[in-house]
Amino acid sequence: MKTDKEMKKEGRGSYDERVSQNDEVVLVRWQDNGTVNMASTHLGVGNIGTVRRWSESQKVHVDIDCPEVVLDYNKYMGGVDKLDFIMSLYPMRTRTKKWPVRVISHFASFALSNSWLEYLRDANKAGLLRKETLDMMAFQTDVANCLLNSNKPQKKRGRPSNDNSRTVKKKALRRAPNRAEEIRRHLLLLTTTNHYQPLPFTITVWRQAKRLVSL
User: Fold this and answer.
1) Residues 66 and 99 in one domain
2) Which residues pair with 27 in a beta bridge?
3) Residues 40, 125: Cα–Cα separation, whole Å
4) 3-class SS at 56?
5) Region Disordered: what ranges (predicted)?
6) Dihedral angle at the C-alpha atoms of 192, 198, 201, 203, nearest 10 degrees?
């Protein structure tokens, strides 16, 4: 394609076009105040139209040639610019260089911005006043709170059921006795039977109890 220098030399309104070998993609360069590059699978230079631009040399507005792909883009670009503006108000910044995380956060911001626009449209149809509608920050906060509170276990009110109390009692019974209780039980066995009893206690505790009896 023509270089920027060649396009600038030809003047404003000049253009250049290239089509891929499979005839599916068109590249267009157009000289406005600067060089505009566009790629499309829908349109190319097509039907040449005109746009009005201010001429510094003539000090008047003049009409210059403009490819159809540029005219079509300018016709429908309002929604794209508006969405980019809304997303730039409260961007989701991530402190990472991993591209999957950045892409996911971008898509989340994209979905929130579109959802807020749909919310404003529905609020307008419902006849809500402007002061009654949520701004972008309040809308994002509301969505975040809903996500945090979803699938959250709720605390049961009132006294616990009998099954729960039985479970607590079983856990208390299964608790291992402390060292003093073990020694007292061994002392009782040694003073009454005076010989070893095969109980499920540690050898250290048994020896400590036997030493106390011999004193």
Assistant:
1) no
2) 18, 39
3) 36
4) coil
5) 149-178
6) 90
pTM strictly above 0.85: no
Whether 65 and 113 share a structural domain: no
- Which 3 state secondary structure label does DSSP give 28? strand
Q: Of 41, 36, 52, which Cα lies nearest the Cα of 2?
A: 36
Tens digit of pLDDT for each residue in 5-47?
A: 898 899 999 999 999 989 899 999 999 989 999 999 988 999 9
* Cβ–Cβ < 8 Å for 140, 90: yes
Structural domains in the chain (count)? 3
Residues 76-114 pLDDT 10s: 877 777 888 888 888 887 788 888 888 898 899 899 999
Q: Are 70 and 8 members of one domain?
A: yes
Cα maximum dimension of the chain: 123
Which domain, by its residues, includes 113? 90-145
What sign does the dihedral 113-115-121-124 (CA atoms) show? Answer: negative
Based on the domain organization, do 135 and 188 belong to the same domain? Answer: no
For residues 66 and 26, membership in a common domain is answered with: yes
Whether 209 contacts 199, CB under 8 Å: no
Residue 193 lies in a domain: yes
Residue 42 sits in the same domain as residue 66: yes
- Amino acid at position 189, single letter: L
Closest by alpha carbon to 109, among 84, 75, 146? 84
Residue 36 CA to residue 30 CA, distance in Å, equals 5
